[in-house]
């Protein structure tokens, strides 16, 4: 089979309809079944957007088999950062299965946790042991309401596919951990047809399939399917297909799982939808971290100045940075019209729009038609109701003042 030809994941088009993605990072896939899991992280941001410190500090990575038994973990070394380049060879984490009596077991559940002070924005995660390979894309997180932003980076070899990236960050309101059921990320035809029957319910209201957490520590366990799900075979893709009992996977009620728990009493994956077993809510953000994770709880804004700064920034990660883009799929209206976007101000040449991310307000780019209450791309300022005078003086009436120290140009 041609490299990258297998369907390992799925994404969403502009109409939020699912489509399969035949992409893989071959150096991140072992050439045979091995007793470890290789996890490849693809980020959506550059060092220019992270204070020159790469993609942020490395996250914790935890793995479980289909029975909910832990296989292994990548534990973070102090002050080790993810490389800021787009060389995925440097983003492959090879995790040995040292926490299970049978190291040949295949990873079926993954949790990625960021409990350092640096934010990271994940665009894609490939998981493989040589026997089974899958790819999770950030589009799913955005679809289900996780904080997200546009990604400059496309899938290597697929320049038109730019997954959205989702934030793992320590500030209040941001997810610190995400978890998912790996084989449910396969984008095979019968699996996607099943999801499309009720996308939100299958993908966002079936928490073991995909969940996100404000405070779930790296030594905690997310919910698992018990008993393990059974699947049909997709004859067209010659891979795993849809579930045999699909509706058994739905959460019993909306918000069934408390996203603010710090850890869960779920040592063997005992969540059982059929018997109504509840996950115990053992810890909140205000409580002490679990003993195995001394950095699991980072303080929220430490003083009044920091709290005021966070409030002033609104949904803007850095008001002094501007992104100017020409790419399709990077329309400013996407981030402005979303209730979960978080990032930088965006000016889209293709769309002719500008988004002030502090308040998520959309403006036209100034041109021969729009001469006031618009964004002047050349001056990089908002033009108020008075427009620009004959002497070049820019009106600030009715618009916020903008001052950019840096600009990124996305193609």
UniProtKB/TrEMBL annotation:
Biased composition (Low complexity): 286-302
Residues covered by region (Disordered): 284-319
Domain of life per record: Eukaryota
Protein name per its UniProtKB record: Uncharacterized protein
Species in which this protein is naturally found: Colletotrichum musicola
